[in-house]
Design goal:
It is built from 5 helices and 12 strands. By secondary structure, it is α/β, with parallel strands linked by helices. It binds flavin-adenine dinucleotide.
Length: 266
């Protein structure tokens, strides 16, 4: 994977294109998937395992996602994106972890999902933010929606890599185990009584965090406004734009757009 310069002339609201690491990533495939397993990993985190022909031989980079086309109501469909937590291209299966919240189309689908259920229209792998092989150190910051991508990336790091992650979850029971060959420190922050998408926890922790020496890469995904604040904090501390890959995964009080991306009200 070769990181190259951020895309020139990208629309400013497209954080991924404006700030993400663009590499030689595998082209997306599409097809149908079948739900092979459903496991609750914690009070607000549900793992869904898919099987499907297009997952056989799937090439993907940790940090990438699947885009599921799901029913919004009786008539309309919406796209919703979920990071690949792990995939086994030999067995033709992949896992996603869904944060259970509210009553949006994806949350509803995940609540009601049944073994053997077909998801007829899935595209992946999607996404351009993945590990920067040139980084001296890696820092991951995000809320629970970034847990699956963060753990997938941490697990893919080689033994010589140095990494740190700050992940906010609703409660201690939502914390997940990590197995990585890298030298990695994973710190869990608990939201407690705060609303999801409140910036305080992650922002205050980042303000106190000492960054290692050398040229590192910071990967951020969270509620859109929180992701922007975290990115701005790092830029204000002197990191170059190319060192920070930030993306809003959802936006407080507003459904993601039909294409699965969060948008700020204009
Ligand atoms: C590239 C990418 C990868 C992603 N990977 C994951 C992943 O691995 N796991 C995961 O759980 N999510 C992930 N997300 C986020 C997920 O796609 C959004 O949370 C999405 O909005 C959920 O769709 P929905 O139909 O349930 O809610 P929507 O219809 O989008 O929104 C309905 C309401 O729910 C609120 N809402 C949406 N998400 C949350 C949340 N997390 N917590 C609290 N309130 C919320 C909205 O503010 C809105 O008020 C990812 C997003 C992107 C763009």
């Amino acid at each position: 994977m070769t990181p190259v310069a951020p895309l020139a002339g990208a629309p400013s609201e497209d954080l991924e294109a404006a700030l993400g690491v663009q590499g030689q990533l595998p082209p997306p495939q599409s097809g149908s998937l079948v739900v092979a397993d459903v496991t609750d990993l914690g009070p607000s985190l549900r793992q869904i395992r898919f099987r499907g022909r297009f997952l056989q031989g799937l090439r993907w980079a940790p940090g990438q996602d699947l885009m599921l086309r799901l029913p919004q109501d009786g008539e309309h469909m919406v796209n919703r994106r979920y990071s690949i937590r792990r995939a086994d291209p030999y067995a033709g299966r992949a896992d996603i972890n869904v944060v259970m919240h509210g009553n949006g189309p994806a949350a509803r689908w995940a609540r009601e999902v049944r073994l053997g259920q077909l998801v007829p229209d899935v595209v992946g792998p999607r996404g351009k933010i993945t590990l920067d092989p040139a980084a001296d150190w890696h820092l991951f910051i995000g809320d629970d929606t970034y847990l699956p991508a963060t753990l997938a990336m941490l697990e893919a790091l080689p033994p010589a890599a140095s990494a740190r992650a700050l992940l906010e979850v609703g409660a201690p029971e939502d914390e997940q185990p990590l197995e990585t060959a890298a030298s990695a420190e994973l710190e869990w922050l608990h939201r407690g009584a705060s609303e999801p998408g409140a910036p305080e926890g992650l922002v205050e922790r980042l303000e106190r965090l000492r960054l290692p020496d050398g040229r590192g890469h910071v990967y951020i995904a969270a509620e859109l406004r929180v992701a922007l604040r975290l990115r701005d904090l790092l830029l204000a501390r002197g990191l170059a734009r190319g060192q920070v890959s930030a993306k809003g995964y959802w936006v407080r009080g507003r459904p993601n757009a039909q294409r699965g991306e969060p948008e700020l009200p204009s």
